[in-house]
């Protein structure tokens, strides 16, 4: 099982935005992602971080992943507990859902912000202010 922590960040909402993610297997760091995504809202940045790790997981052939996010909105929308009303988020949700179906075992879990500091630091560090 690969454990992945994701986060999105922006300066202003919308504003310059970035994503951060870090993946582990058995306590060993496998990868880290930290990149600017241009102008976006925080929710869009959160979804883009999810999509980036789903694409990475597929490329690397991970069959079992557990994704941790401090975005309650993203987690509840991806788990079907909240409807996706925003048209832009709907497109990203659709893409993430399709990518997720290509991975054999996937779980998305909400965590408190303080448990997500490494992914947050990667995202914050890539925001172009």
Would you mind describing this structure in some detail?
With 129 residues, the protein is α/β, with parallel strands linked by helices. The protein is 39% helix and 35% strand. The protein is built from four helices and five strands. The chain has a five-stranded mixed beta sheet. A hairpin with a 4-residue loop joins β1 (2-10) and β2. α1 runs parallel beside α3 (87-100). The longest helix has 19 residues, at 42-60. The relative contact order is 0.26. The mean pLDDT is 97.
What's the end-to-end separation, in Å? 36 Å
Q: What radius of gyration results from the CA coordinates?
A: 13 Å
User: Structural class of the helix and strand makeup?
Assistant: alpha/beta
Q: In percent, how much strand structure appears in the residues? A: 25-35%
| Low-confidence runs | none
What fraction, in percent, of the residue positions are helical? 25-40%
| Biggest sheet features | 5 strands, mixed
- From the spread of the alpha carbons, the general shape counts as globular
Strand order of the largest sheet: 3-2-1-4-5
Summarize the structure in short.
The protein is built from four helices and five strands, in the order βββαβααβα. The protein has 129 residues and is of the alpha/beta class.
Topology at a glance:
Blueprint: E1 2-10, E2 15-25, E3 28-40, H1 42-60, E4 64-69, H2 72-78, H3 87-100, E5 105-110, H4 117-126
Parallel strand pairs: 1-4, 4-5
Antiparallel strand pairs: 1-2, 2-3
Keywords:
alpha/beta; 5-stranded mixed β-sheet; 4 helices; 5 strands; 35% strand
């Amino acid at each position: 099982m690969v454990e992945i922590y994701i986060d999105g960040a922006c300066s202003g909402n919308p504003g310059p935005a970035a994503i951060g993610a870090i993946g582990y297997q058995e306590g060993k760091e496998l990868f880290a992602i930290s990149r600017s995504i241009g102008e976006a809202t925080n929710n869009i940045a959160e979804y883009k971080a999810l999509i980036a790790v789903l694409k990475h997981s597929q490329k690397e052939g991970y069959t079992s992943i557990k994704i941790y996010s401090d975005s309650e909105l993203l987690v509840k929308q991806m788990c079907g507990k909240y409807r996706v009303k925003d048209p832009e988020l709907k497109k990203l949700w659709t893409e993430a859902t399709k990518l997720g179906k290509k991975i054999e075992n996937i779980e998305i879990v909400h965590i408190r912000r303080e448990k997500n500091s490494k992914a947050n630091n990667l995202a914050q560090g890539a925001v172009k202010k």
